[in-house]
């Protein structure tokens, strides 16, 4: 039965779609790297991300020559669609196939449209960094699971958008980072931060230093950390006392290994008011970072007006 487009928080156990998730992770890295190859650089790597759309995940318009193109994972009809401003397009079926095949088809489609593209064809932020052209390990694709994950992102993005509207300082879009496969939104205090120590697998320290060059409070959603994924919140640099804060709801807790607060997706989706439950968590995590970090909140918070 087709689920409603509004009013539902989709339920998807991580254990039920791990193989599809891991394949899709590699596919999003390929598409994200295509955007990175052509889009003008923006601070904190905001030019490489994807965005939830009405049908899946897309790049937004990428400048090319005198026009533009975009790529969109359509999780309704299950195609990767490449569109150009001159009306031409290509479609690549989203179906069980190795990453190597998806990579080859994507690059061939771009070449067929005259979009000359070279990417660093190895995944980042994963332990086993198999070159895309050689990856036969990841080949699963369950369309229903991909569709449910996209709808999780849509719901998360909707509430993060409400939270985003409450801040007037420097802040990121609500966007999908393909490195860690998470939907993220970040606020900045306006002050620079100490150099990030790095440590993400198969990711140069310079990448992390650019991403964390300024003091921040970040939050988002990723398909891990709980039975159905988890919402997270952290601060960099983490102010003293941050980890000791008690955040609502009761299911939220600080993970000392990851250095962030986690709230299982199922605790939000199963609550009487999921939007309110999530907003309470996001607002409380930000309060902890901003108050303990001595942010100038009068300058960056929207307030009651």
TrEMBL record:
InterPro entries: DUF5996 (IPR046038)
Superkingdom, natural source: Bacteria
Record Pfam families: DUF5996
Protein name per the record: DUF5996 family protein
